[in-house]
Amino acid sequence: MSYHLDGKIALVTGGSKGLGKVISTRLAEAGAMVIVNYANYKEAAEQTAVSIQSSGGKAATVRGDITDEQAVAQLVTEVEATCGGTIDILVNNATGPQPELSIEESTWNDYLDQLVFFVKAPLLLTKAVLPGMKKKGEGRIITIGSEVVQLGNPNFSNYVTAKSSQIGMTRSWANELGPFGITVNLVNPGFIPVERHSEVNPLTLREYAKGVPLRKMGEPRDIGNAVAFLASSEARFITGQSISVNGGNTFGI
Ligand SMILES: NC(=O)c1ccc[n+]([C@@H]2O[C@H](COP(=O)([O-])OP(=O)(O)OC[C@H]3O[C@@H](n4cnc5c(N)ncnc54)[C@H](OP(=O)(O)O)[C@@H]3O)[C@@H](O)[C@H]2O)c1
């Protein structure tokens, strides 16, 4: 199914590679003008934008560390100037390093590092896009969570804790922003190999897939499709939801 996002402006944080790249591509296929955000690797972001443009889509890039308040304000102003309009769709996707640490190895700063990416950055970005969305009386805020919240992976509590916070954040924001026509949802990928997983042993992938009810690995496009749906007018009555896209690997909240 093809969703129609013509005339919409979408900002995808960490859109240069991994899931963000495919989310950006999918939103552009649906007709949105997509702004591909990145922090460090300009070339990767430009490649994503060029690949979208060469398929007939509309895309531009914006550099900015989404964990930094000033940088976020600046990048949103830059996007709005480039696009000549305010942001309709915000996808909170970017991630930093995800260290696996036992409790003994973990420090409070290891937890804070993850909270900064998965709670602080979405807060800064949401605050920056809200004036435009409220003025229009509509908007979409879509955050990329993770199935680790249901799985409770050991030696990963810094990441699991921060991803868990996104459920409460999504529900509270949905209640607060519903009266303004703004929907807020969480999309939880299963393990979906992207560039940074190139070293993962194929045996690990096969073992994971064996435990998934659909008996296969997901693809980045599965996440892109879910995001495109939630961004579309077809999803106008869906808000405050936590949606797993993981072949049925987890059930529940
Ligand atoms: N892939 C999976 O299996 C999986 C599973 C569950 C959940 N997720 C979630 O899905 C999302 C995407 O994950 P991924 O695997 O696609 O990650 P990824 O391939 O590592 O990509 C991360 C992206 O974030 C950007 N980024 C890093 N620091 C940034 C900063 N300070 N400001 C702005 N952008 C920044 C990177 O750009 P630069 O390289 O330029 O810094 C890059 O574009 C994350 O929220 C992750 O937790 C992924």
Automatic annotation (TrEMBL):
GO terms of biological process kind: bile acid metabolic process
Gene3D superfamilies recorded: NAD(P)-binding Rossmann-like Domain
UniProt keywords, alphabetically: Oxidoreductase
Transmembrane segments: none
InterPro entries, sorted: NAD(P)-bd_dom_sf, SDR, SDR_fam
One GO MF term attached to the UniProt entry: oxidoreductase activity
Pfam families tied to this protein: adh_short_C2 (PF13561)
Record flagged with keyword Protein transport: no
Presence of keyword Translocase: no
Family from the record: Belongs to the short-chain dehydrogenases/reductases (SDR) family.
Protein's name according to its UniProt entry: 3-oxoacyl-ACP reductase
Organism listed in the record: Bacillus taeanensis
